[in-house]
Amino acid sequence: MEQIAQWLAKFQSIDRRIIYLCVSIAIALPFIVTIRLPVIPTLPTQKFYEAVEKVPKGKVVLIAADFDTGTEGENGPQVQAVLEHLMRRRIPFVIIGLAIQGPQLVQNYADRLAKKYGYRYGQDYVNLGYITGGQPALERFCRSIWQMIPKDAKGTPLSEIPLMRKVRSANDIGLVAEFTGAGLLGYYIQTFWGQFKVPLAQGCTGIIGPEQFPYLATGQLSGLMVGLKGAAEYEALLNLRREGYRRMMPQSMGHITALLLIFLGNLGMWLTYRRRQIRRL
Amino acid sequence: MFEPVRDSWLNIALIFMAIFISILVLAAIHSSPPQFKRILTVVVVFFAGLYFPVEFYIPRHNFLTPFRDSVSNLVQVLAAFTFGLGVVNLVLIHGRHVLRRTTNLPFSLAFFAGFLLMTVVGFIQRYSPQLWAKKAGSGQVVFWEGMHKLLFEGMLLPLTSTVFSLLAFFIVSAAYRAFRIRTLEAGLLMAAAIIVMLANVPVGTWLTSWLPAEGWLKWLRLENAAIWLTTQINAPTQRAILFGLWVGALGAALRIWLSLERTFAAGGR
Amino acid sequence: MLPPISEESLKILAYWIGAVCTLGIYTILYRENRVYRTLEHFYIGLALGFGLVETVNKVLDPQWFRPMVTETSVTVVSFDKSPQLTGVALDKILKQVGDGAWKWTPLETHQIQITGIPPEWGAPNYLKIWLHLDKPVFKGQIKLTIRIHNPDTKKEASLSTNIPTDFSGWREIRLELRDFSVQGEPYRDFEKVGKYRVLGDVVAIEFQANDSLVNSGATVHLDELRHCIGYRWWWAFASVVGLMYYTVLSPRFGWMSRLSLSFLMSLSAAGYTFKAFAIEVPPHIQDSFRPIFGTDFVTAINNAIFVGVLLCVMVYFFFSVEHRHILIRGPASLGRWLLMLTFGIVFGNTVMGRFSLFISRLDFLLLQNPVEADRWTKLGMVIGLAIVLFGAAFLSVEYERRRTQRVAT
Q1: Distance from CA of B243 to the nearest CA of A (A)
Q2: Distances from the Cα of B68 to the Cαs of A184, B54, C276, in angstroms?
Q3: Which of the two ends of chain B, N or C, has the fewest CB atoms closer than 10 A to its terminal CB?
């Protein structure tokens, strides 16, 4: 027992690189050895799913890709799950983004999925690219998409894109699905939701997830997908097994390693404290 | 006065006139006493800050409405000009390293390589994609598009993702070293963190999957406990923080609007 | 001439360069080294370049430079495609802009209507069209009509004007919209203030020849109809304000940067905050009043907890009163504990987020390798690359250490 206590006390000052190696191996292991466990969808993700289900016929969904490669690990699988859902329901969608790289990333996903569902660029989906200017720009976008962005991301005039003929203002949008790792939800609430009554749903990173729950309570958000877990839940709702699901086991291993390390650290601290007390006595 | 002109030469003349007048006005202000500059900044800032609230609070179709889009454009353009400041700053810093051949020289050269490659390829790809390039056949892309794809998808994308992902290691290392339950508060924090961390992964939910899915005991299942904590404890707490933030934001906005924010406004150094 | 690149080789190249970048950055986990620093600086350069290109391409070019130095025109009809109308043919020889022009013989058909044009025109000031007449017709006129459907009034409207035909050869005609005669209500409600007017949805453009032109037997060529706003020279002032930021580098002229920065901050951040507050916050206040009576037991308990937590945390943050009295101190302490619970939740989610990013990199390295090989070979390739890069990092650290030792001695 004394030896374990000594070892644990020493373990507290272990080289950080050993911790890094432990974490790497733990997370990499499920990539090599396949283990599968079911994912249970939670209410906020179910609400997101229902919000997509409720999009009226004839309206489009606006995919707001407000993330870049920094948070693609979380937002990427979320967008892909939602795109798959939209394509299954044959709902057209328009991509924009307040982050520079976001729209391009989402278009890459859409192009890949389009082959499976027979979606055509221009007919069923359009990428309008990166928008600058925050709320005033989004407000203008809501009033007139054509005036705000006369050309798509490739430089094609909107008049030459068949889908855009019926997408002219926020009134033609049935749902805004925003994906972000930054606190940009306010911009959409102040414009789409507040001034044009377009429902909003958000896929956000784990870090900002807890901040978004008050908006779910007010109804300003119709649905919420938090982190990679949210993506895995959405995939479960769609009976899919893609990135979100695939990455849940490495995620599990990572969490267990982190918890184990925290536990060992505390145990070491507690044993050191006890040894000191015993010595004093 | 602000009617778009129809003639390109007249337009060029007016552009030069506008720049000339601006320089004259700036020169006149520059030679004025500091007190005047301060008052001028206060007045300009006050009226600029009035636009959006007045336009919004007066019912729609008011006299300010037609300028909404122009003002929104102006904000974007002025914000875009600030980007150049970052470019100038970094180029100056690394330019100095290159000229003085400091120990940072190879890294500064790497900076310039990345910057110039992306800028040149980016501009050519956007404005003249066929420049000195042969046409692409099926299954091929034009040289500049390929280069841009390589720089964006092959380099920028993985570099950004990887830099952010480093935080995974640092957070575990920091948690291991600093996350010690010494007080009640730390215990509460730890308890909530454990519940959420376990509930966020299938292994965690599997641990309590033997509990019934209905009835009172369902609240002991980790996924339900975590969602309850998030919606019933986290949501109102975050809302209280949100209220505080908004009060702070309004205060900060008022300080900027009334030129009380001295860090960059009138009188600031 | 630069050759095209095949998509397949591009995919493989992008993967391997990406793998080098990924593993190269991870060498920092071993120690600060030259491989990492080089990639880090290269990354900053790339990101800066990308940002610069996007800023110019998305903002400065379309919103500042083009409005200032061009007419900001949009092509309504290019007349480059075959018209499918009797009396009108595509002429690929006699043209001004693009691939062709329409040759119209009014004697055969005195009126042509063009549909399928861009419906949304915004608020243009004038139209421009290239017209060619093989001979002047002094009493001749072409009536140009813009047919509009107004979504606000749900009614049809039109704008029309007459173009004289007293010339021969090509001529670019400018038609001021304010000179058009108006039938019905062609302007949208939401922006109809002063001179600034947004048109409803344009559904068709019509050209109608009068009797003199019809009877003259003249042929008319039509090319490139555009609607234009005009040159907006005043954007030059924005460039002056924008360039004023750069005086921050000079202590003497630094006041200019403060003036322009304050102006921008006040206009955007400060001005918009008041508006944003009015839209975003009231629903939160409203939702904080939750019923305890008249609902089921579980909801009532949850509502009571929700409101209780909100009040406790708000009391904790209320620093205007000293937390001495039990009625303040009690809820404030509870508020602190509740905040700790929330921070625990935030921590749990943060760990999840950070791991997800690392997992996505591993997913890239281990599962997205486009090389055709079995998974163990791919794994071996990645491990091999990692050994090379970490080896290089180790050697660079050793080199630095020895150099420092040499300098010290």
Answers
A1: 11
A2: 21, 11, 15
A3: N
The widest CA-to-CA distance across chain C, in whole angstroms, is: 104
Closest CA to C244 of B44, B40, B29, B82: B82
Shortest Cα distance from C137 to chain A (angstroms)? Answer: 35
- Of the candidates A78, A47, A45, A265, the one whose C-alpha atom is nearest the C-alpha of residue A179 is A78
Please give the ipTM for the structure prediction: 0.90
Per residue in B140-190, pLDDT (tens digit) is 889 999 999 999 989 998 999 999 899 999 988 888 887 888 889 999 999
Q: What's the rounded Cα separation, in Å, for the pair C409 and C406? A: 5
Rounded to whole angstroms, the Cα distance separating C136 from C166 reads 5
For A180, other C-beta atoms within 10 Å of its C-beta total 28
Q: Which chains touch A (3 or more CB pairs under 8 A)?
A: B, C
Region of C87 (left: φ > 0; alpha: ψ -120 to 50; beta: rest) is left
* Residue C13 sits at the chain B interface (C-beta within 8 Å): yes
**Residue B269: is its pLDDT beyond 50?**
no
Q: What are phi and psi of C114, to 5 degrees?
A: -115, 125
SS (H, E, C) A129-189: EECCCHHHHHHHHHHCHHHHCCECCCCCEHHHCHHHHCCCCHHHEEEEEEEECCCCHHHHH
Taking only residues 348 to 407 of chain C, the set having a beta carbon closer than 8 angstroms to any beta carbon of chain B reads 348-352, 354-355, 357-358, 360-361, 364
Residue C49, chain B, CB below 8 Å: the answer is yes
- Span C18-52, pLDDT tens digits: 999 999 999 999 999 999 999 999 999 999 999 99
- The CA distance from A127 to A130, in Å, is 9
Residue C94: which residues within 8 A CB-CB, separation 6 or more?
C101, C103, C132, C221
Are B73 and A139 in contact, with CB atoms under 8 Å apart?
Answer: no
- The distance between the two most distant Cα atoms of chain A, rounded to a whole number of Å, is 86
Band of pLDDT at residue B60, cut at 50, 70 and 90: low
At residue C252, what is the residue type?
Answer: R
The band of B263, judged by pLDDT with boundaries at 50, 70 and 90, is low
Is residue A126 within 8 A of residue A152, CB to CB? The reply is yes
- C154 and C185 Cβ atoms separated by less than 8 Å: no
CA A248, A253, A254, A255 dihedral sign is positive
- pLDDT per residue over B186-212, tens digit each? 999 999 999 999 999 988 888 888 888
The residues near B115 (Cβ < 8 Å, ≥ 6 apart) are B90, B91, C45, C46, C48, C49
Alpha-carbon span C245 to C257, nearest angstrom: 4
Dihedral of CA C32/C35/C41/C44: which sign? negative
